[in-house]
Design goal:
Elements lengths: L4 H9 L2 H16 L5 E2 L11 H12 L15 H15 L8 E4 L1 H13 L5 E6 L5 H7 L3 E6 L8 H7 L4 E7 L11 H18 L4 E5 L22 E6 L12 E5 L6 H14 L7 H7 L9 H18 L11 E2 L8 H10 L2 E2 L1 E2 L9 E4 L4 H17 L5
Parallel strand pairs: 1-10, 3-4, 3-5, 5-6, 6-7
Antiparallel strand pairs: 2-8, 7-8, 9-12, 11-12
Helix pairs in contact: 5-9, 11-13
């Protein structure tokens, strides 16, 4: 047998996103890509900002000697300083380069953090709906995922979280703006969560980390100010990337930031540096580190995403669908008009519209659709949603 049993099981179960990707390819081969409206993948079609292209050109024309060599595993000091200075402005905390580790994207960052803090059997709380890979990442490092449902508004339910915290609880993962709902966890909820965690720590004699996964942090709408977790809980850790805010998902560039007031910060940072190396990442991509150090205040066009969000929200609600208006990221998570959302996903496929069942994110009865796609795809998809709404008698 060439493949381990655990891997074989993972391959066979797969993820719903991957399944829809494969089914989408089949539809595109049959009908042509322009006639299939794929809202299943969070893979931005927008190009990186002009500032990125300028930096790339500058480095290509004026290469820095040794810029493709290894650097210390934490990343270039200049890049970590730039990240720290930017986060200091955002959070009001005095972060320095010593609080930052550059990583291979947010996924690499989260794996580094989990490897560093988890002993076998330690528990990590995950709020549903959640990014599909969280449970795999936790399992990678011997941990046990504990899924806790959010409220009807998709906000963290403090009582439910408190009910599952035990002496084995090592961390809770937050994702805001959230994939798949687009919800931004507000400051009041985060403060209550921080207070609750600290009470549990005191009662149980443990230390619990809040890990905030923030690749969509800068993609927020309607003038919202992002509520940072770092000032709220001393044992807070940010993992993030520039995959979404600079439209660089394939470049795998991100970082870890630790609350500078964390009492075991130096040990944590040492652990992250070690884990970054032994997991095989070694260091974050050198060229991307050179580029993003100058782009910490730059993003793709947020107004364009907001325009697409408003278009979809207006159409879905006018058709009778039940859906929260996203505050950030680029996803909708509407309620399925039938109990089995897979039936609804299959119905939409009849109109060549691709979405992902909510159970792929730990919450049945909903579907996820993304709007980091072109206008033609969104407009064609809305026609399919309209036909489905008629079938299910949703139209007002």
């Amino acid at each position: 047998m060439s493949v381990a049993d655990k891997i074989k099981t993972g391959i066979s179960e797969g993820s719903w996103i991957r399944k829809m990707f494969e089914e989408g390819n089949t539809l595109k081969q049959k009908y042509g890509a322009a006639n299939v409206f794929d809202l299943s993948l969070g893979n931005p079609i927008v190009e990186p900002p002009a500032e990125f292209q300028q930096e790339l050109k500058r480095l290509a024309e004026n290469p820095i000697p040794g810029m493709h060599r290894y650097m210390e595993n934490a990343g270039y000091a200049e890049t970590r300083t730039a990240v720290a200075e930017h986060m200091a402005v955002e959070t009001g905390l005095k972060l320095t380069a010593g609080d930052i580790v550059m990583t291979s994207g947010a996924a690499g960052a989260l794996n580094v953090v989990l490897k560093t803090i988890l002993n076998p059997g330690d528990e990590v709380i995950v709020l549903s709906p959640f990014f599909v890979e969280y449970l795999n990442y936790i399992d990678n490092h011997g941990g046990v995922g504990k899924i806790v449902a959010t409220g009807l508004d998709f906000m963290p339910d403090i009582n439910r979280i408190e009910a599952v915290v035990t002496k084995k609880t090592r961390a809770i993962i937050l994702n805001s703006p959230n994939n798949p709902t687009g919800v931004v966890y507000n400051k009041e909820v985060l403060k209550k969560l921080g207070e609750s965690i600290r009470k549990k720590e005191s009662h149980l004699g443990t230390e619990i980390y809040i890990i905030s996964d923030e690749p969509y942090r800068k993609i927020i709408y309607d003038g919202l100010v992002y509520p940072h977790i770092l000032p709220i809980h001393p044992r807070s850790i940010v993992v993030t990337s520039h995959s979404k805010d600079l439209a660089l998902p394939g470049e795998r560039i991100g970082y870890i930031a630790v609350n500078p007031g964390c009492n075991d910060k130096e040990e944590l940072i040492s652990g992250f540096i070690y884990s970054n190396r032994v997991l095989g990442f070694v260091n974050a991509p050198a060229l991307m580190q050179q580029i993003v150090r100058r782009l910490q205040s730059v993003t793709v066009s947020i107004s364009d995403y907001q325009r697409k969000r408003d278009y979809i929200y207006q159409h879905l609600t006018s058709m009778g669908y039940m859906v929260n208006k996203p505050q950030g990221a680029f996803y909708f998570f509407p309620k399925s008009p039938v109990e089995d959302e897979i039936e609804f996903v299959r119905e939409l496929q009849q109109y060549k519209v691709l979405t992902v069942p909510g159970r792929g994110f730990g919450m049945s009865g909903y579907i996820r659709l993304t709007y980091c796609v072109d206008d033609h795809t969104i407009e064609g998809a809305m026609e399919g949603f309209h036909k489905a709404a008629k079938k299910y008698k949703l139209s007002k």
